[in-house]
């Protein structure tokens, strides 16, 4: 099953001139990683503090795109501008998990979202990323397989919050969307584990 992650190379090509400019200005990969996590926490806090307001929901889709760009940029800075480090690897993985949690968990307080489903989805998202990391420990490559990877989650939640922010009434469609995200996360975890074992074996 395809994932939005598959278009990452084309997205990186669009961002490469900006990445070169940032490198020339002395911006480091770790600074970008930390900035993405901090901004995620700020946007999540807006949703948590104003759960009945539309503007935080409208803020989320645009920010998710910005976050995807920042995630691509920090990787290119590390790989293409000699900024790889052990600290960077740690910050990248932990920062992604913290950012996801900060952005999606506050949706539990937004009308139309099921609090327990949001919690389950957040936990499954963490497990899916950890499954990708564990692949390295058994001798495989870091797994980014879909169908509900980080970029896919950003697209789905960006779309859901955009619709709510534009005034579309929440209903059964939103509940079933959350159920589908949870189910696809389970598939993602299983696929990453299976492919990691196959690659290592």
Question: What key phrases describe this protein's structure?
Answer:
201 residues; Four Helix Bundle (Hemerythrin (Met), subunit A); mainly alpha
Q: How is this structure best described in words?
A:
This is CDP-alcohol phosphatidyltransferase family protein. It comes from Oleiharenicola lentus. Keywords: Membrane, Transferase, Transmembrane, Transmembrane helix. This protein has 201 residues and is mainly α. The chain has a single domain, classed as Up-down Bundle (Four Helix Bundle (Hemerythrin (Met), subunit A)), CATH 1.20.120. 75% of the residues lie in helices and 0% in strands. The protein contains seven helices and no strands. The longest helix has 29 residues, at 172-200. The protein is globular, with a radius of gyration of 17 Å. The protein starts with 7 loop residues before the first helix and ends with a helix.
Describe, in short, the structure shown.
This protein has helices at about 10-25, 30-50, 55-80, 85-105, 115-135, 150-165, 170-200. It is mainly α and about 200 residues long. Pfam families: CDP-OH_P_transf.
Q: Helices and strands, in N-to-C order?
A: HHHHHHH
Helix tally equals 7
Overall geometry = globular
CATH superfamily: CDP-alcohol phosphotransferase transmembrane (TM) domain
Give the assembly state of these chains: single chain
Unreliably modeled segments: none
Query: What share of residues are in beta strands?
Result: under 5%
Please identify the structural class as seen in this structure.
Answer: mainly alpha
Count of the domains: 1
Rounded to the nearest angstrom, the radius of gyration is 17 Å
DSSP helix fraction: over 70%
Largest sheet composition? none
Distance between the termini: 23 Å
Transmembrane segments: 21-50, 89-107, 113-139, 151-167, 173-190
Pfam family, one: CDP-OH_P_transf
GO molecular function, one term: phosphotransferase activity, for other substituted phosphate groups
Keywords: Membrane, Transferase, Transmembrane, Transmembrane helix
